[in-house]
């Protein structure tokens, strides 16, 4: 288990349990967003003893701590470990790969739109969904 991930959990106010570390480390090595069910099946395939409800609870606590981002995937929520800096996403609806985008261009656009509508922005989220080059090939 990674000391960096243990430190991340502690800094987020979470105890670094073996289940939290397993989930966080598994997601940290992926470029795609996965559902709780996907993650549960992956753990089962590896022989890891973690229940589906534990996976859901763990994912929820990691999202609440700001360590994971969420994406809507059909009727389900999908999860991905992202960088802590402010950013946005390109999300492939075919392979579920997520690419982080620098926030600057989106921030500029949000500012212009808010100003033109005399609107004070308290927060925003911009995820762009489509099909990546690899899936179009």
Topology, please?
Elements: H1 3-11, H2 18-28, E1 34-35, H3 36-45, H4 52-64, E2 68-73, E3 76-81, E4 87-92, E5 98-102, H5 104-116, E6 127-130, H6 133-136
Parallel strand pairs: 4-6
Antiparallel strand pairs: 1-3, 2-3, 4-5
Helix pairs in contact: 2-4, 3-4
How many helices in DSSP terms? 6
Structural class: alpha+beta
Globally, the shape reads: globular
* Rg, nearest Å: 17 Å
Summarize the amount of helix as a percent range.
Answer: 40-55%
Distance between the termini: 37 Å
**Count of DSSP strands:** 6
Mean pLDDT across every amino acid position:
90
Beta content comes to 15-25%
Structural description of this entry:
Helix 2 (18-28) packs across helix 4 and helix 3 (36-45) crosses helix 4. The chain has helices spanning 3-11, 18-28, 36-45, 52-64, 104-116, 133-136; strands at residues 34-35, 68-73, 76-81, 87-92, 98-102, 127-130. The model has no long low-confidence stretch (mean pLDDT 90). The longest helix is centred in the middle third of the chain and has 13 residues, at 52-64. The protein is an alpha+beta fold and 137 residues long.
Briefly, what is this?
The protein is 44% helix and 21% strand.
Short descriptors:
137 residues; globular; alpha+beta; 21% strand; single chain; 44% helix
């Amino acid at each position: 288990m990674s000391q960096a991930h243990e430190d991340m959990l502690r800094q987020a106010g979470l105890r670094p349990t073996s289940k939290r570390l397993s989930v966080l480390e598994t997601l940290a090595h992926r470029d795609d967003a996965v559902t709780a069910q996907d993650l549960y099946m992956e753990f089962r395939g590896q022989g890891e003893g973690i229940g589906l409800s534990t996976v859901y609870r763990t994912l929820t606590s990691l999202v609440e701590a700001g360590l994971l981002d969420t994406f809507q995937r059909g009727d389900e929520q999908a999860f991905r470990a992202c960088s802590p800096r402010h950013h946005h996403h390109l999300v492939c609806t075919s392979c579920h790969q997520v690419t982080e985008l620098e926030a600057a261009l989106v921030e500029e656009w949000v500012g212009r739109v808010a100003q033109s509508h005399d609107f004070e922005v308290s927060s925003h989220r911009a995820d762009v969904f489509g099909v990546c080059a690899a899936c179009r090939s």
